[in-house]
Amino acid sequence: MAKGIAEEPSRLGEQLAEDFLGHLWPPFTQLQGLKPVIMERAEGAVVYDTEGNEYIDAFASLWTVNVGHGRQEIFDAIKAQMDKLAIYHIFQIANEPSIKLAAKVASLMPGDLDHVFLTLGGGESVETAVKMARQYHRNRGNGTKYMVLYRDRSYHGTTMTSTSAQGLTVNRQKFEPLLPGFIKLGAPYCYRCAWGKTYGEDCRMECAKVVEQEILFYGPENVGTMLGETMIGTGGVIPPPPEYWPMVCETCKAYDVLVINDEVITGFGRSGTWFGFEQFGSDPDLVTMAKGLSSGYLPLGAVGAREHVFQAFLGGADKAFMSGATYNGHPLCSAAGLANLEIIERDKLVERCAEVGPYLQEGLRTLRAHPIVGDVRGVGMVAGIEYVSDKATREWFPPSVGAALKVRDEAFKRGVFVRLLGGGHCNAIAPPFIISREQIDTIVRVLDEAIGVVERELGY
Ligand SMILES: Cc1ncc(COP(=O)(O)O)c(C=O)c1O
């Protein structure tokens, strides 16, 4: 296997690189000094750049391509829909694939999460869900319940609402002033408990109890929504303790606070169940989804709503949900989503995540032997590695050292793409569900090597 970054760029690569740096303004990217790598094609769990280098896509694009790259069935479904109806909106009207997709998603969600609002991505889903929660309270005569609780280290996208619920400083500070009424809570982050407690020892689930404390502090008449990723992702892949969501949901119910579980990463199988909230004991009123809904073949997201939420929007024009966008329910995106879900069901890919996920988790946990690896955690096909300068104190490296960034780059040179996140202190691994055990072995071996290289460079 030809791996690593080619020494000499090709002519095609050179032209693309010039146009990239000259014209394309990509998200979250410092272009100055960037050495462009341009992806050209992909197959299964492998992606190839314009120089012919190949990489294991250990992050499934951006935790997205869950069914793997190059699925002909999805291309065929999009083409078949194009031949019939490429675009028609769903404002007071509908198109066939959007109806079928909504019914399919509703059938996959447990309980009475029966209503589905289609969007084009995760941030838009969060934006929509928060607006839904606000209008829900207003429709029921509780218009003052506008406040939104969110958590430290959360990531919900880049709209102004998502940014206001952003728990990573680097992603929010530059955009102040943000929206009023967003209240930050400590995260259920046992490795770095905000209350200085140790799970299983002196922990009293302070992270869950703080929800009631803050509702009472701000007043139940003002707090309307609790927004949280079922499992924090971009903040460092942080599964909550099992007591967390059941306690939070009980509190929220008692104070008529709607729970939004952000399932943009965990939805559609990644955690080993169809939805993360099923295994983390949560009972959300609203669920935000994207990524795995279409495996990214076309932009697609959704908000799932329970019956009682939906009912609050019935009964007259002034009750209707007054939000949406031109491309909500787009026929081609819906067709891609349907074909994707059919593959996940037919090929039993959720079951595969539950079966192969532990193999990935076990392999990655061997990396804990490294002196700079503080923690390895995750569930199913999603894992995070957190780096520390000192295992005993759990102190992070200063940003100037950039240990996680260095490991990511060393792994990339060796043909494995993992992601830098967790405020720059973590790497995340979230491969397509179809990844083989052999490819998982390669990911673990390459990370082992990459961490070793960085350790030697840092003098460990
Ligand atoms: C939990 C979560 N919510 C929302 C989003 C935003 O999704 P998008 O980038 O599609 O707007 C992300 C993106 O990674 C996410 O991880």
Describe the 3D structure:
With 460 residues, the chain is of the alpha/beta class. It has 2 domains: 11-67 and 349-457, Aspartate Aminotransferase, domain 1, CATH 3.90.1150; 72-346, Aspartate Aminotransferase, domain 2. The chain is 37% helix and 15% strand. The protein has 15 helices and 14 strands. The protein has helices at residues 11-23, 60-63, 72-84, 96-108, 122-139, 160-164, 169-172, 206-218, 244-254, 276-279, 307-311, 331-346, 349-365, 403-413, 437-457, and strands at 39-43, 46-49, 54-56, 115-119, 147-151, 182-185, 223-229, 258-262, 286-289, 301-305, 373-379, 382-387, 419-421, 426-429. The strands form 3 sheets. It has a 7-stranded mixed β-sheet, sandwiched between helices. Strands 11-12-14-13 form a 4-stranded antiparallel β-sheet, covered by helices on one side. Strand 8, helix 10 (276-279) and strand 9 (286-289) form a beta-alpha-beta unit. Helix 4 packs parallel to helix 12 and helix 8 (206-218) packs parallel to helix 9 (244-254). The radius of gyration is 22 Å and the shape is globular. The model has no long low-confidence stretch (mean pLDDT 96). The chain binds pyridoxal-5'-phosphate. Pyridoxal-5'-phosphate binds at residues 62, 121-123, 126, 155-157, 229, 233-234, 262, 264-265, 290. Pyridoxal-5'-phosphate binds next to helix 5.
